[in-house]
Amino acid sequence: MTEKLKVAMIDDQSLCRSGLSELLSHCYDMDVLGAVGSLEELRLLIKKKPDLLIVDLRMQPMDGITMIEELRKEGCNLPALILTMSDSESDLSKAIRAGVRGYLLKDMAPEEVVEAIKRVAAGELVVAPSMTVKMIELLKGDSPEQEAKNSLKLLTEREREILQLLSRGESNKGIALSLHISYDTVKQHVRHILNKLNLSSRVKAAVLFAKEHGDDNYPPK
Description:
Layout: E1 5-10, H1 14-25, E2 30-36, H2 39-46, E3 52-56, H3 64-73, E4 80-84, H4 89-97, E5 102-105, H5 110-121, E6 126-127, H6 132-140, H7 144-151, H8 157-167, H9 172-179, H10 183-197, H11 202-213
Parallel strand pairs: 1-2, 1-3, 3-4, 4-5, 5-6
Helix pairs in contact: 8-10, 8-11, 9-10
């Protein structure tokens, strides 16, 4: 049996918490670990090891994006998505810069929200359909190199591990041995990495990662 997706959520409005909890509780492949209203409660909930965080944007005294940034500083790198009423391009931009993997609107259809949550959990960057044009506008003005750097935020944790090994000169076979995964799985991940970064070669991807992270191991000696 497929393991259920474990979800933790935070919203300072109890009606929103209960509504989303009720929606997701009817999904056979999801397990709602809890819905809380403060950062302190969320820290406790994270100890239950959720797979994904669903975070409201407009909260007091700390907004959702700042909260995610605080958790990152504390070493919590769980995938997170914003669920909000705000369709502001500024809020979307701040969320993407903070490494958020999803930006959903509370007026989306329930089935769209459920599908988007699953896609974020699978490693995709997902925005509400009505926000797609704004997302494109955010990226359109970037130079190709800057756009590729921005796209590094779209990579999953596993893809970042693989890209780091690529930047150190590892072959697909070496990566497979290091991460205890199959050779074909590595090839698939590399294809996904290149597609997300819009780059034509693994060398360009490796150089980009090394420059961005100051990796002295590239090029390999």
